[in-house]
Each structure stands twice: as structure tokens, then as C-alpha cells.
Amino acid sequence: MAQLYVGTSGWAYPSWKPEFYPQKLAQAKFLTYYSSQLNTVEVNLTFRQLLKGTTAEKWIGQTPAAFRFAVKAHQVITHIKRLRELGDFLLRFLQSIEPLAQAGKLGPVLFQLPPNLQADKAVLEAFLASIPRALRATFEFRHQSWLADDIFSLLKQHNRALCIAETEERVTPDVVTADFCYYRYRKPTYTQEERTAMLHRMQEHLQSGREVFAYFKHEETPQGAIYAVEVLKQGAGAPLSTLLTSRPGA
Fold it and tell me: Which one of 19, 64, 97, 140 has the fewest CB atoms closer than 10 angstroms to its CB?
């Protein structure tokens, strides 16, 4: 049965006390507590540095077996080399997240392209061919030129997901291109109607056998984490007609 994964982009935020984290909880225990409330997190640390083996092992030990870490691809891949002439760096990046994969805790890898990178189908096709088939990969295109049928078709051929990113300035069309779906909800607030619509869309995917990964914006307030808990609990079987009013730890 397809699984719903909902979380936030990061977890190490003391400002989430006391609405999400208990007031007296030590920061060293944040991930353990977070993973008792949510079943995935999007890791942004990997955008600027390769993941150390000791860090990966610590994360693995602090989270349940069913927990998943989605990781953002390193900036060398997406922003510096811009998917071209990567040499052995792609392999080094993949090797750095291999401990998560070996533990069964690796979610999708997010390749977030820079806003000034325009569409180049040939470059994307060559890059897609270089990624291991077993790797779940999702692409966030931030230049409008990428949002075209030929690019969507190419992603479908390789079973790579179009990242559906939603900000106050930009919304990616909700096009399914893989056997899983990946959402990034970046607006600071969402109405009850918007959250209910999210749930309906997620359930459509789950009923079609597609797993769903969804991440809310972190920010300095715990609102994204609170939204994530609500959506995950409802997606796991609570009625869609009402949204939860309870808070983690309540």
C-alpha cells in the first residue's frame, strides 16, 4: 500500500518551542521527538556539504525504522556545475548518503535548479541517464522555461518526479511524472480550505499506488510543523471534513 510521508524542511529550530517541541526538551533530542510526530524530513545541510558518515549514523539511530530522510542535492551539482561535467562529484555525493539508503531511510533526492538556469533538454537527458535507476529523484525547476510538455515527458521516461513547489510568487503545475509525488509547500500560511485540498490530492495519489512526500516551510515559527502533523494524521485516516486542532504533545 502506498505510504504518505509529511514533514518539514529541517528540524533544528529552538524557536519551535513550546508549540511543537516541549519547552524543556534539549536540542540534542529534537530529531528523536520530531520523528515521533512526523515520518520524514527534508535535509538542506547536504546542499552545502557532503554528509558525514558519523552524522548519518547518528540520524539513523535517533529515528524509527519507517522514517525517511529526503536530501537536497549538493550545490556543486545544481548551481555550480549546473548538471554538466560533474566528474566524480555526483558519485561522491551519492556515496555520502549511502548509509541512509543502506538503513532503508533514504527518501527522494531533491535536485533544486537555480532560478537563472533556463531549460536545456539535452543537458537534463544526459544527467538523468547518469543517475542510478534505483535512486528516487525529484527536480524543482525555478525557471519557467522548464515547465513544458517535452520536459515532463522526459521525466516520465526516466521515472523522475516533478517537484511541485508552491510559493507566494510561483506555483509549479501539478503534473505526475513518476511513481511517487513530491510537494514543497513554501507559503507561510495555508487556510483550512487549502489544507483540505492538499489532502484530497494526496489521497488521489495514494489510491493510485503512488507514494507521496510533502514538506512544509520551516521558518522561525512552528506553523509549518503544526500543519505537517495535521496533514499527516488526517492522511493516515482521519476525516477530511475537519482539520485537527490538537498540537504535538497535547
Answer: 64
